[in-house]
Amino acid sequence: MQLAMVGLGRMGMNMARRLLRGGHEVVAYNRTPQKTDEIVKEGAVGADTLPEVVEKLRAPRIVWIMLPAGSAVDDHLVAFKDLLAEGDMVVDGGNTYYKDDIRRAEILAEKGIRFMDVGVSGGIWGLEIGYCMMIGGSAETYRYLEPIFKTLAPEEGYLYCGRTGAGHFVKMVHNGIEYGMMQAYGEGFQILESSVYGNSFNYAAIAHLWNQGSVVRSWLLELAEAAFAKDGKLTDIRGYVEDSGEGRWTVAQAIEAGVSAPVIALSLMNRFRSKETDTFSDKVVAALRREFGGHAVVAAEKK
After folding, report:
1. What are the residue numbers of the active site?
2. pLDDT (tens digit per residue) in 135-159
3. Residue 190 to residue 284: CA distance in whole angstroms
4. How much is the pTM?
5. Contacts 24+ apart (CB under 8 A), 294-300
6. Cβ-contact 134, 167 below 8 angstroms
7. What is the Cα–Cα distance from 275 to 242, expressed in whole angstroms?
């Protein structure tokens, strides 16, 4: 299939690469042209402006946007509403708040433009392994776009979740769970580090051990092992953990629905606290975010 990939950041660039390797035709656009030039060398068709993106697509046009949540998405959708025609499709694969999906879908529908929300998980490993995708919107449009989802995802790695907003809603809760899981791992390793045995522990070996049949085995533990193998005490990074939004939205949703979610709520509060203090548990969480998503870390202060 032919589609445009708008936004060539950590996720968008590798998604474009995976689509090209899967035989799809990709029209690529990024605000900074250097990234567009990079993917053009790998087989994409480059576009320097949003009108050029649309000009290079065949009807019905498919525009997949991978942009930071918020005004950047709104600005691009306003532009595409004027440029696209009835029957064209816009897919938002970023980390968007599900209520924004509902509003945006209604705006695009005024012109007959179809909108799909796709929560994407996989980070910088998605190019090799594939992306887990949670999809919301029209079932008919989902079926039309399914060859794209099938290429991007591993086997059984995509799911139609329901009407508009459902995809990003499921992804929001996914990320809330992720907050709690990483916090638990971080606290566990801090308890180990703070014990009388801490100086003798090899944390990479412990993470590896726990992945051999243990009930706490996971990909996150594999990434913890990799992080500890690089720096056994994580001395090069500060325990500063940024929150990207989904944790806040998940906690807000729990409050709105009257659902008790203390683990996720406290893991979010701990991220706020991490900006003021520097603990080993926060170093673990920061290291995990770097390993799976390429998220920036704050370097430790030199003593």
Report:
1. 171, 178
2. 999 999 999 999 999 999 999 999 9
3. 9
4. 0.91
5. 294/10, 294/123, 294/124, 295/242, 296/242, 297/237, 297/238, 297/240, 298/237, 298/238, 298/240, 299/236, 299/237, 299/238, 300/235, 300/236, 300/237, 300/238
6. yes
7. 8
Does pLDDT of 293 surpass 80? no
Percent of the chain residues past pLDDT 70, beyond the cut: 99
Tokens for 280, please give them: 């080993």
Token pair belonging to 100? 């924004």
Show Cβ contacts of residue 74 under 8 Å, excluding neighbours closer than 6 positions. Answer: 104
41-92 confidence digits (pLDDT tens): 999 999 999 999 999 999 999 999 999 888 999 999 999 999 999 999 999 9
